[in-house]
Fold these 3 entries.
Entry 1:
Amino acid sequence: MLRLLKKQGKASCMILFIAIFLVSLHTVYSETGAGTDADAKISAIISQMTLEEKIVMLHGSSLFNSAGIERLGIEEMKFTDGPFGIREELGRNSWAPVGATDDSATFLPTGPALAATWNNTLALEYGKCIGAEARARGKDVLLGPALNIFRTPLCGRNFDYFTEDPFLNAGITVGYVKGVQSQDVAACLKHYALNNQETERGRIDVQVDERALREIYLYGFEAGIKQGGALTVMGSYNKFRGAWLCENDYLMNKMLKGEWGFKGLVVSDWGATHSSVNSALYGLDVEMGGRGSGPDAYFMGSALLKAVQEGQVDEKIIDEKVRRILHVMFSIKKQQPDRATGAINTPEHRQTVYNVAAEAIVLLKNSAGVLPLNVDKVHTLAVFGDNAMEKHAQGGFGAGVKAKYEITPLAGLQNRLQDKVKINYAQGYKKQFQQTPGGRRFFGAPAPDNTPDTTLIQEAVKIAKSSDAVVIFAGSNRNFESEARDRTDLQLPFGQVELIQAVAAVNPNTVVVMITGAAFDLSVVEKSVSALLWSSFNGSEAGNAYADVLFGKVNPSGKLPYTIPVKLDDIAAHALGTFPGENGKAEYKESILVGYRWFDTKGIEPLYCFGHGLSYSTFEINSVKTDKSKYTQDGTIDVKVTVKNTGQTAGTETIQLYVHDTEASVMRPQKELKGYAKLFLQPGKKQDVHIKIPVKDLAFYSDTAMQWVVEPGQFELLAGFSSRDIHKTTLITVK
Ligand code: BGC
C-alpha cells in the first residue's frame, strides 16, 4: 500500500496517516484479535471516507474483484473460486478465460472425497494447500468451502458439497476454514443457506421448520463461524420463508451477525442480489456479479447511493458494511509486508492431495477377496471405462481448475506398475450425450445417451477373457454432474451397466471403481461384481491413489459421507414428493429426517449405509466405556473405545459414535453422529481411543422454547464402524 501511495506522488499527509493506521492495525489485530483498539482505528479510517467511496466498496469492480479506494491506498478485494482448487483467471468483465499461462493450480479432491476421509486434520491440510495456492495467485477470499447438505442425491452440485450429516459437515468445514485462513486468505462459507438443489435455484422458496434449519442445514455454517472463525459468507440464490437469501433479515442479521456474532462480510452469490434498500438493510455487505460493469450495474452501486442520499438507508448501515470489509482485510493482513506469500503445487501440496485421495476411496464390497490385486498373480490387467482416461478438474457449468496436472486412473496404474503387469486398456463405454434440442435439460445441458455400445462391449469382453483381472473405472463425470442443474434420476449413464455385467460374466476377478459426486443406482452393479470401490472426483493425484488402493499399497479407509439408496423413493425428499417443489416452493416436509436419520428411523434398508467402508483388514470394538455414568449439562463425556485389528493387514479404521436419545419428549432420529476418530493399527494390535462429546451436543433444537435443549434422562451411545455396523453400546444419564 505504501508503495502505491508513493507512486501516486500526491499523497496527502492524511493518506499517509491512514496508511500508517492500516499497518499498525494489523499489529493490533494479530496481538489482540479484533479488539476495541482495532475497531477504533477502523472507525478513524471510515471517518475519512466520503459516502461515494464507501458505496464503491460494496460491489464488484470486476467479475471477481470488489473495489478499493485509490485515494486511500486501499486495494481491490480479490475473490476466487473455490472450492476444490483456484480457478483460472477470467476476464475482468467476462466469464471467458484470459488464456494466461500462469494460472494453473492443484486440483484438490472434491467435497465428498474430503468428507469421506472423516479426517478433520486432513481437512486442515487441504485448507492450507488451497489457501496457499490462493495466496500465490494474489487472492484475498477463497470461495469455499461449499457445505450445503445432501438432501437428495440428484442435486447436481453434491460433488462440491461434503455430506448428508451435519456433524461430519461441521468437522470438515472447521478444518478447511482454519487451514485456508492460516494462509492469510479469507474462507467463504457457501452457499448460505438451503441451496440444496439446483433446479430453480434462482427462485425457489425453501420452507423448512426451525428445528431442521438449526439441526441439519445451518449446523455446519454455525460451526464454520464460531469454531472455524470464517471471515466471509456467501448468500445463496434461493429464498427462505419468502425472502431472498441476500436480503434475509432472519438468516443474515438475526442469526449470522446477531446470534453467532459474525464479524466478517457477507458477499452475494454471483447475481444473487435483487434490491438496493432491502439488501442493504437485511444483511448483504458486498454485491458480486452485477448486470454489466460500473456502479449502475449493481443494486449496491448508484441505486444504493441514491437511497442513502434520500434517507431510505442510514449511512451508519453503510459504515458497518465498510467496517466488515476492513475487518476482513486486516484479518488477512492485506497489503501488509508480513503476509503469507503462498505457493503452487509444492511437494507438500502434492502429498496432501495424494493423502486425501487415498483416504477418500471407499471399499464398498470385497466379498470374494479379489482385492487387493497382487502383482505376483496378476500378470495381465484389463482396464476399461471412459473414466480410466477422463479428467475431472473441469467440466459442466461453473468453477473448475486448470489443473497443473491430473493423473488419470490409467496413468496411475501405469506409473505404479511399470512393466510388472501388462495393462490392456479398452474404452468399454464412452460418455455420449444426445445433442437434440428435445434431449436438452436445464442450462442447455445435454441428456446422456445411455445406449450400450455393443462394439466397445464386445472388445472389452474379449480382452477380459484373456486377462487375470479387470478394473472398470465407471460412474459419472463433471459434464454429467454440474452446477445449475440436477440429475433427473439415479441411473448410471452411458450404457456402462451393460458393460459391467458383460465383463463380470466372463471374468470373476472384476473390480469396479465408481467415480461420482453423489449416489447412483448400483443395484445391478453390486450384484454383478464381487469388488466395488467408490470415490468422488479425486484430484490431481487420483490415479496414483487408485493404483495404490487396488494393489494394496494403501489399505482403504474411506467411509461413505452419504447413504446410497436402493432406489430414489427411499430418500425422504422423494418419498414425500417434495423435490424439486411446486409453484416455486420447496417444502422440506421430512424435517430433520435427512439421510440416514430417515432410513434408520423409518426402517428402510439402504444399499450402502452412511459411514460404510471396508478395509483389507478386519477390526473389532472390544469395549466402549465412559468416564462417568452421570453428567451435568455442562459436562463432557469422555468415551473410551477399545479397538483391535483382527486381520492380517495393518490398516486404519474410523470409530463412529452415534447417540440415541432413549426418552425424549420430541421425536428424535434413531441415531445421530456425535463423534468420530481414526486409528491406525498393526495386525493383532489393540488400542484405546478417546472421543469427547460435550453434553450440550446431545441437544435438539426446541422450536417451542426456541433454544437448544438437552433433556435430562438416559442416552445410549453406539460405537461402530458405520451407521449400521454398531459393535458396542453403553448408557449414560444426563442430570
Ligand atoms: C456459484 C458460486 C461461485 C460463483 C462465482 C456461482 O454461480 O454458485 O459457487 O462461487 O458462481 O463463480
Entry 2:
Amino acid sequence: MLFPDYRPRRLRQSESLRRMIRETTLAADDLILPLFVIEGKGVKNPIPSMPGHYQLSIDNLIDVAKHACGLGIPAVMLFGIPDRKDSLATRAYAKDGIVQKATKELKETLDKLIVITDVCLCQYTDHGHCGVLQGQTVDNDATLDLLAKTALSHARAGADMVAPSDMMDGRVAEIRETLDENGFSNTAIMSYAAKYCSSYYGPFRSAAETAAKFGDRKTYQMDPANALEAIREVTLDIEEGADIIIVKPALAYLDIIYRIREEILLPIAAYNVSGEFAMIKAADKMGWLDGHKVMMETLTAIKRAGADMILTYFALEAAETLRKICSE
Ligand code: PBG
Ligand code: ZN
C-alpha cells in the first residue's frame, strides 16, 4: 500500500492514538538506581559531575532508598567507598565492610526493595585496579577467590543479587559455586558480561574514588570496537551461571544490546553509565537541550534496543515523570 492510500500520519494525530500505537513503554519497574555508600553519619557529599548524586552514609542512603521505593523503583545497586584501601582489597569482603552494613540495614528497613551489590575490588585496592596485582599486571586467577569471598559476604548480609563488574575470566562460575556451597543458591548473579573499556566511566571514578593509579583497564575490560566478542563473553557467563546479563555502557552500545537480545533468552540489563548521565546534565545546564526530554528519549531508546531493565542515575527523575504521566 502506497501513498495516498497509506498515510502513516493517520496514526500520529493525537496523543491517545500515539499511546495506542506505541511499541516501547518505560515503567518504574524497569529502573535500577545506583547508589554510593560511605562510612559515617549524616554524610551527603555531592558528586560535582553527577548532579543530584551523593556519597551517602547509611542513614541518608536509607532515606533515598525509601524515596525510590515510594516511586515504584524495585531495586538499587550499591557501590561502597571503604574507610581504607590495601593491596588485597580486604575491606571488600569484611563482615563489617560498608556494603555489607548498608545491605543489612536496607533489607531490615525495606524488605521489598531488591538490593543488588556491585562486586569488584577497584574501590578497595590501593592501586585502583579491579583485581590483585602480580607485578604490574592484574592476576586473574588470584582475584577469583577474593571476588567470590566478596560476593559471599554480600549474600550473607542479605543481598538479593550480586553483580560482578571486574571482567576477570571465570568469576561467575567461581561466585556461583561459592554461593551454592554456602547455602545461597537463591542469590542471583547479575553479571556485567559485556563491559567495555569506556571513557564514559569518568564521573563514576571520581564518585567511587576508584581511578587506577597506573595503566588502564584494557587487559580486562572489552575493546569498544568489538561486537562478536560481546556475544562470546555473554555466552560464557550464561554457561557459568549468570541469571541476568549487563551490557555497559548503554548509549554508544545499543547495537550490542540489540545483538545480544537476538542471541540469548536471559533478561538483559543495560547500564546507562555516569558519563552518559553527565553529558545530558551538562548540556541541560548550558541550556543547549532539554535534559528532561533527552533523558526520557534516551531511556526509551535503550529499552527499544532490547534491554529489559536499565541501571540509571536518572531512575528517580524518570520514575517521578512516569508517575505524573500515569496520573494525567
Ligand atoms: C567498577 C565499576 C565501574 C562502573 C561500575 N562498576 C567503573 C570502572 O569499571 O572503571 C562504572 C559505572 C558508571 O560509570 O556509571 N568496576
Ligand atoms: Zn572494578
Entry 3:
Amino acid sequence: MRSERPSIAVVGGGFGGVGTAVMLKREGYEDVTVFEKGERVGGVWQHNTYPGAACDIPSHLYEYSFAPNRWSRRFSPGPEIQAYIEGVARRFGVLDRIRTGTEVKSAAWDEQRNKWLLETTSGSHEADVLVTACGQLSVPKVPPLAGLDDFEGPAFHTAEWRHDVDLAGKRVAVIGTGCSAIQVVPAIQPEVARVDVYQRSPGWTLAKGDFAYSPVLRSLFRRLPALRRLDRASVYAFQELAAAAFTRHRWLLPLFRVFGMRQIKAAISDPELRRKVTPTYEFGCKRIMLTDDWYPTLTKPNVDLVAEGIGAITPAGIRDASGAERATEVIVLATGFASHDFVAPMEISGRDGRRLEEEWKEMARAYLGLSVPGFPNLFLLYGPNTNGGSGSVVNTLECGIGHVLAALREMERARARRIEVRPEAAQDFDRELRAALAKTVWHSGCSNWYVDENGNDPSNWPWTWSAYRRRTRELTPGAYALGEPETANLAQALG
Ligand code: NAP
C-alpha cells in the first residue's frame, strides 16, 4: 500500500521535458526532477542555431496547447522558439525542477525497491518513474567521407554551428539537401563568395507560405482567441490530410506532387537544374520540405548544385565523383542525425538486468512508442515509431505525456508501485504497426532517415495523429500489468 505520490525523473529539457514538468505540476506531482545536459532548456532549439533555423510547421500548432503564444511570424525562427520554451518553463514555475548541465549516463531498475537509480554527471538520483524525453534528432550524424579529417579549414555540422567562423566572402560547401540544408543555404548565400551544394538525392518540396504577422493580425489573434484556435485547427486538419496521404490514402499523393512540380518549374528555367532537383521517387517518401526560397537560391550566380556525388574531401576542397575539384574554405555538414538509437548514449537496464540496447539490437520497438516489456515504470516520449512525415512533434509529445499521466493515475488508483506493459500487448501492437508501415509511402523505395540500411523502420507512426491521441489518452484494459514490489508475477491486471 502506498500513500505518497511517486517521484519522477525526466531526462531531457527540450519541448518534451519542459512539457512533462509543467503537465506533472498541473496534476500536483511535486517530486519531479528534469535532467538536461545542456546549460539551458530548449533541446533541438538550443542546439540548432544555424542561420535560417526556423520551424517548418506553422507556429500555432508548433506550441504547447496549454501555452498559446504571440508569434511574430507564421513559421517562427529558432531563437523565438527557444525563448518560448524558456518562457514556458519560467511562467509555469518549473525552472527549479530542471537541473541543467547534468547528463544522465545510466539508469538501472532496482527490482527490490521498485526504483530507478540514475547515475548522472553530478551524482546519483533515485525516482519511482523514469520518463525519457531525449528527442529523435539530437545526435549529429557525420558521414565517413574520405579525407574529411585532413580538410584544412573549419568543417562543422549544422547542429554544432561555429558562430566564430565568419562566412562573409568565403567559398563554402554545404553537404546534404535535407530540411536543415534548405534553410541554411538561402540564409548564407547573400554573404558568401560561393556556395557549392552537394546533393546526393533531391527531396520534394511544397511552398511554405511564410510571412510576418502584421500588427493588426497579431492584435486580432490576441483579442480573438477563437481565431487562433481556428487557425490551429485548420493547420492540424491539413497535417492530418498529409498523414492520411502518406499512409492509407496514397492516391492523394499525385495531387501534392503537382504542387511540388509547379514550385520547381516556377523557380527554375534551366532544364539541367530542373532535372537535378526533381526527385524520381514517390512524393512524400523522404520528408517533404517546406520552403519559399530553396529553388530561387539555387539559381543565384554564386550557387552551384553538385549532383555528381562526393569522391573525396581534399585538404583545400572537395573532389566530386567525376574528378572535378572545387576549392572550399568551409564545409557545412547538413547530413542529419543518428536517430535510430533513441535514448543512447544513456544506458538503461531494466528487470533482470536486461539492457535496452540489447533488446533493441535488431531495431528499437516500444508499445505506442512509450513502453517496453521488462522496463517497469519507464516511458519514452517521442520514442520508436512516433515520428511522421507530417504533424507537430509538440502534439505527439503532449499525447505521450498524457499517457504517462494516465499510467500514474492507474498506479495511484490501484496503489501499485509499478506498471509494466504486457509482452503480448507490445507484440500485438508491433505486428499491427509493421503491417501498416509496409503500406506507407516511406517504404516505397527511396532512401530516407526513417528506414535503416536493413529496411527496418523504428521511426514512423503509420496512422493519423488523431489516432495517436486516441490510443494514448487512456490505458487500454489489459495492456499493462500493475504490481506491488512483492507481487512476483505482476498478476494484478488492469481492467
Ligand atoms: P536529413 O533530412 O537526414 O538530411 C541529410 C542530408 O544529408 C540528405 O540530403 C542526405 O542525402 C545527405 N547526406 C547524408 N549523408 C551523406 C553523404 N555521405 N554524402 C552526401 N550527402 C549525404 O537531415 P536534416 O536536414 O538535418 O533533417 C532531419 C530532420 O530534422 C528533418 O526531416 C526534420 O524532421 C527535422 N528538421 C526540422 C526542421 C524544422 O524546420 N523544424 C529543420 C531541420 C530539420 P540523402 O537524402 O541522399 O540521404
